Amino acid sequence: MEEGLVVFEAGFKEIELSNCWVLKRVIEYTLALGNILNGGTDKGQADGFNFESIDKIFNIKDVNGKPAAFFICQELVKENPDCINYKQKLVNFYATKRYGWENLFPGFETYLWSCESMYQKAKALADKIDDETDEFKMKAPIEMNQVVKSVTDIMDWYKAVKKQWERYCKYFDFNDEKKDESQKFTKWFIEFFDTLDKYFPKQKKK
Q1: What is the pLDDT of residues 127-174, one digit of tens each?
Q2: Minimal CA–CA distance to 182: which of 196, 167, 197, 195?
């Protein structure tokens, strides 16, 4: 579970717009393109758009059949040649597809309750022992309390990372289906990145 939390926490940071220059610029280009295509209409002065519709850049094509994504990627490479290797900075985010909240946290609250119960029982037994040098009396309650603290810390960590994920769902305005299942959230992004990657010049990749 801890490995999954590390991957999710690092992966979410990788797609933050402050860290993922390509995603940030693609969003900006898509908004600009949308305003141009919708010029003269009420939609031509938009300040934003439904994020999930960003994949339209793969379907909107010029008279020669080249999609908008091709031209966007060409411009990105002109601005920043190194951006062609942007997926190398998304290693942890790609790794999140191996996990899901529903698999990451099964029965953990029940496990915590069991640990707390065992701690109370150990403490009660230790209190009945008069010999202060008794090994069980000296060690058992302390060790069980440490277990409870460790489990509690992991739970708090999990809740913090889950809040981060929920914040991204809200920021990108994803639908309820992706909010309910983290794997659908990450799957959508990974499919988007993989498709976008096809429009970068392949010969220059490291």
Answers
A1: 888 888 888 888 888 888 888 888 788 888 888 888 887 887 777 777
A2: 167
Sign, Cα dihedral of 67, 69, 74, 79: positive
Distance between CA atoms of 13 and 154, rounded to whole angstroms?
19
Q: How far apart are CA 153 and CA 41, in angstroms?
A: 53
The encoded tokens of residue 133 equal 């040098």
- What stretches of the chain show up as alpha helix (H) in DSSP? 2-14, 21-37, 68-79, 91-95, 101-104, 108-127, 135-171, 176-180, 182-197
- This prediction has a pTM of 0.73
CA torsion sign for 105, 188, 161, 12 is: positive
Q: How crowded is residue 181: how many other Cβ atoms within 10 Å of its Cβ?
A: 14
Instruction: Determine the Cα–Cα distance for residues 86 and 90; give it in Å rounded to an integer.
Output: 7
- Pull the structure tokens for residue 13: 């940071």
